[in-house]
Amino acid sequence: MADVDETLKRIESHKGVIGTILVNGDGIPVRTTLDNSTTSQYARLLRSFTALASSAVRDVDPQNDLTFVRIRSKKHEIMVAPENNNLLIVIQNPCE
Amino acid sequence: ENNDVTPQPLHQAGLGAEQANRFLVEELSAGSASDQTTFTGNFGKQFSFFVELLLPDEKWKKDLVKEQVTQALLKVMKDIFITETDTISLLEIAPAILLRTSPCFVYRERNKQYEEVCRKRISNEKYVDRAMQTLNEASKNKQIQNNLMLMVDAGLHVLFIVKKMKPNNYAETFVESSRSAERMCCFSQTFSLSVISSCSLKDVDAVRTGLNTQSDLELIRLSEKFQYSLLLMERSVLRNSFQCQLASYRQLPLVKPKEVEEGEGRTETSCSPALECLWRFSCELSIGCSVSCMAWNQKNPDLLAVGYGESDSRNQEPGLVCCWSIKNPRWPERIIHCDSAVTTLDFSANSPGQLAVGMCDGSIAVYNVQIHCFPILHIGPVWQLRWNKQELSFTGEEKVEALFSVGADGRICKWFIINGGLDCTDLMKLKRSNNTQRKTGQKPEKMAECGLSALTPGLCFDFHPIDSNIYLTGTWEGNIHKCSCSNSHQFLETYKKHFCPVNWITWCPFHPDVFLSCSSDSTIQLWKQDCPRPLLSFSSNHGEVCEVKWSPRQATVFGAVYNGHLEVWDLNSSFLDPVIVQPAAPGLKMTSFLFASLTDCVLVGDSYGQVTVYQMQNLRVGECRQVQHTNISDKCLNIWGLKGEVRSKLEFKLLKVLYFL
């Protein structure tokens, strides 16, 4: 348990990381370091996006499963790690 | 009617406004104020007086100007008398006191008339309503200060009992939010409205599903998949930061988004071989501990085990072993705390999860790195000496792997796993040589202290890469013995050149007969197996050589680490000078180093607990030259095939070196 917290803290304090969001199975952010409106927006949008990606992977090969999604945009990179129904979202600005 | 009751003005309206202020200055007669008519008459008098005074303004000014011209007049002392005026009464109406008995009907009549007038006033045309303007003085702004009003957002404690809808309706969920931490979001407000609107009371069963965000967090945390996702996430985040360094480590071309690709251009600008620092492995746990040994995992080339501990210090500080991954330079994958300083470690080849750790107090522990690091076998100190330094190696001996160690008590032991513990058999006892020419000044004292007879501490050993029965060992005295596992009483051969303790010994991975040794006498010797004299000697005045290792990729390259710097030699280009010299950062001592097996990188550990990854650049292998073939070289090629990126020309070059003399 302590490891999990420590790892999360390390990720959050890493250079370039803008924020982290942990979303539970119902799409409700459970833990976040960003403000409310941004968090809800990210949670809502990325949840549907991840579901789409996961269904795409499964359609191609039913034994396959989605493990990680990275969206690289001009300004920063959004990384989503889905497991069960939860989502771990990290937004990072890689080049500073 | 002529009974006009409008009040008469106090002063004449004809005069200007600025003079209205002045009428109080002069004396006014007060006595006759009771009579209103005479009052105004007095005013008239006074005002006429004012007028006389004030009209000739220009004259006054001229007089004033004339007076000011002569400065002498200014200096004259003038007495000014200020007196109070008499009290001025502007209006005085004496009360009239009447007795009832007195003939007051006059006044009563007057009162009645007044009342009638008032009554008639409403309907009478004579009286007109008119607005009056009161005197409005100039408005002025006044600033006030007030305490800041604090606005506090209050969260909602909302708990809905939603009745279960029919299957085609959608709203089921709701939120119970809590205001405990700032990080928790309050979603109740937006949710509640939508839920209320769709709630209907015509349902059959009432289901209440409670979602507590706190318990959710706990559940998520405990799941293993989440920990795996965290691991992935951390690695991805780090990979973004270390993108360039990791790419050059893996020898991928660097893509720079804005500028032109400089991958090849760099070599043109600086032609000399150099080390470029890529990154450092360091975390808060390891800072301050000196790096004593490093080893790569046999199966996973990205996994590196680093042992920390000061083996020279007399006080036994606890040691540390960290397993680092290339993918995460900021935090080790596994951390093992040891009881005493770690002196040596090695990964097993057969079971790649096993890591054997040798410690300063003489104990050996074998850890299983895959499962969270519990020591599976641990034995107590076997050696009676107070200080020893060991080196372990796993060898594939008839496909059975065994753990070997050499200690300061002069024994080389082979370890077995019996009943959950380790048991050892002596493989060899390192006897002292009786060569009286040698001046190892410490020898007699050491013997007296030890109390053991004729055994010299062994500091290093290395198994032959092909014939795992044969091994070399270096001793405190400076001798190197070639031994065999099957013969535990005699040395096969002894190589004598060093006169100080031999710190490291290593076989060449590309040639079966060549090995290197380094010692505290600041020399490195290159030997061939059956030659009693070294082939080449590399000496410097820089102090003791801690370690020397062959490069796993290039046959003629080896590196040596001193306390103050790192040297990389390329026998192909020069015998006399190292190709690259990398000085240590000021204040740090380099203690250990390692070549990377798949890339051109060197890892250097220092006394501050950091492991720095350098990339070797411009280490050109050179052109090929015509050399004779020999039988030995053929055998080499047949036996090994091609190891790594060895080209046959390299073999020839090495032979050229060997037959130089």
From TrEMBL, chain B:
Q: Alphabetically, which GO biological process terms does the record hold?
A: cilium movement
What domain of life does the native source organism fall in? Eukaryota
Predominant subcellular localization, coarse grouping: cytoplasm
Where does the record place a coiled coil?
none
Q: Which SMART domains match?
A: WD40
Query: Do you know which PROSITE patterns this protein is assigned to?
Result: WD_REPEATS_1 (PS00678), WD_REPEATS_2 (PS50082)
One Pfam family it belongs to: WD40
- What are the WD repeat spans here? 538-573
Q: Which GO terms describe its cellular component?
A: axonemal dynein complex; dynein axonemal particle
Q: Which terms does the record give in the GO molecular function aspect? A: dynein heavy chain binding; dynein light chain binding
**Keyword terms, alphabetized:** Cell projection, Cilium, Cytoplasm, Cytoskeleton, Flagellum, Repeat, WD repeat
> PANTHER family in the record, alphabetically?
DYNEIN AXONEMAL INTERMEDIATE CHAIN 4, DYNEIN INTERMEDIATE CHAIN
| Designated name of the protein | Dynein axonemal intermediate chain 4
Organism equals Fundulus heteroclitus (Killifish)
